[in-house]
Write a structure and sequence with these properties.
114 residues; mainly beta; 4-stranded antiparallel beta sheet; 7-stranded mixed beta sheet
């Protein structure tokens, strides 16, 4: 499985960004796609995930501000990020987990200025 992420960039606090990730390869109908982030000096953490049936999970720090969605027909996952804060600054990685494999995208930088 290969993941190609896009989006990210520099935005002022309070602004919005959208991240997208497209998966290709041998993808099972049942899987979990998600976004993680890693800030300098910190561990990688889950931001949000979504199952193939639409169940979602969010980190407490992004609840009410971020929305994850997916298109099962196109094997894509999107993270809409609103009301961004400087503490959201990190490299964001998309992930796909399914039986027997876990794949990561290349990471995309999100920088939120105060």
């Amino acid at each position: 499985v290969q993941l190609q992420a896009s989006g990210g960039g520099l935005v002022q606090a309070g602004g919005s960004l959208r991240l997208s990730c497209a998966a290709s390869g041998s993808i099972f109908s049942s899987n979990v796609m998600g976004w993680y982030r890693q800030a300098p000096g910190k561990q990688r953490e889950l931001v949000a995930s979504i199952t193939s049936s639409g169940g979602t999970l969010y980190a407490d720090s992004v609840k009410g501000r971020f929305t994850i969605s997916r298109d099962n027909a196109k094997f894509t996952v999107t993270l809409q990020m609103n009301s961004l804060k400087p503490e959201d600054t990190a490299v964001y990685y998309c992930n796909l987990n399914q039986v027997g494999s876990s794949a990561w995208g290349q990471g995309t930088q999100v920088t939120v200025s105060s």
